[in-house]
Each structure stands twice: as C-alpha cells, then as structure tokens.
Amino acid sequence: MESKIKIKKVELVGKYSAMLSLIELALGSTLHSLRIPFSGNFLSLNQGFLLCRASIESRESQLGSVAYGISNVSAVLKSLAPAGKKLGPMLSLSMQGLLFSAGERLLGANLGGWMLGMALLSLWTFLQPIVTYYVFFGSELVRALGYFAEKTLPNYQLDWQILIWAFLLLICLKVLFAVFL
User: Which one, out of 24, 25, 84, 118, has a CA that is 20 to 30 A from the CA of 33?
Assistant: First the structure.
C-alpha cells in the first residue's frame, strides 16, 4: 500500500514538474527575450498557481507535501534549457517552492497555508535581485544607490520616501494578487 502512495506521489510531482518546466521554458524564454517588464513576476504567480493545484490534488490523495519537490525538479530541468539564463531562474524556482512549502508547513495544507505560501512566494521576485546584487557587490551597491539617488532624484523633484512608498505599494499589490490567485 505504501509503495502505491509513493508511486502516486512521484507521478504527481512528475506531472506538475513537467508542466512548470515547459511553461518556464516556452513562455519564460519568450517573455524574457522580448524584454517584457515584470515577466518574472508573472512567471512566479504561474508557479504559485501550479503549486496550489498540485497541493490540492496531493491533499485529496493524501500524498503529503509536493510543492518543494516540484519546484526543485523544475529547477533541474531548467538547467537543461539550450539557451537563455539558467542560474537566476533555477534559483527562483527552487526558492519559491521552498517559500510556498513554508506556508504549508506553518498553517497546513489548507486555504490558509496556501495563501501564506503564495504571499511568501510572491515576495521572492523582489528579494532575489537585491540579495543577488548584494552578494556580488556588497556595500558598494548601497553606496552606488546612494550616489544615484543624490544625483538624479532632485532633478525629478522626487524624494526617497516617495520611491520607498511606491515600491512597498507595488509589493503589497503583488502579494494581494498572489493571495487572491
């Protein structure tokens, strides 16, 4: 009986990993090559939607958590893509799966857990560039941003606070959209 459950879980992970990988490869490559703004945000919401569907199916079959496995298999499959960026999308797929799974672990495989998972997952598209650039550039990144703000913001009659509030509003809108999804 236990081996049948494991087989069903592997099949479920395989099905959703293949779907997510194909979407990332086809749609992701197209959106990024056309340089469409916010395409990474759209792809993260798509991943969250697929993880929710897989989690619902997993819960109905009593298979346990599958979201992190799906995301990691998709990340590995992304490495096989013939062209385009690989490391950034692989990191995104894996981290977003981990964050979604954290919501499920904290609140359970239910609506509350999926909503928290979607909220956490949706934050990663804003955090990844900051973390990545800080790893590469360290404190020089902060100094460069300060210099940029000092030289450009007065020309547009903008203040740091306005930019921060606009950025926070954008984050809140995406989180709300992700939770609604």
Answer: 118
Would you say 48 and 178 are in contact if contact means Cβ atoms under 8 Å apart? yes
Tokens found for residue 99 = 């964050």
Residue 155, H or E segment = none
Tokens found for residue 98: 């981990």
Q: Which value, in Å, is the radius of gyration of the alpha carbons in the chain?
A: 19
| Cα gap 92→70, rounded to integer Å | 13
Nearest Cα to Cα of residue 123 among 29, 50, 41, 67: 41
pLDDT tens across 109-166, in order? 999 999 999 999 999 988 998 888 888 888 898 888 888 878 887 777 777 788 788 8
CA 103 centroid distance within chain: 13
DSSP 156: G
Residue found under tokens 């692989």: 90
Residue-by-residue DSSP string for 88-152 = HHHHHHHHHHHHHHHHHHHH-SSHHHHHHHHHHHHHHHHHHHHHHHHHHHTHHHHHHHHHHHHHH
Contacting residues for 13 by C-beta, under 8 A, at least 6 apart: 54, 66, 69, 70, 73
DSSP label at residue 153: G
Q: Is 82 helix (H, G, I), strand (E, B) or coil?
A: coil
Is residue 46 within 8 A of residue 23, CB to CB? The reply is yes
The sign one gets for the Cα dihedral 31, 32, 38, 41 is positive
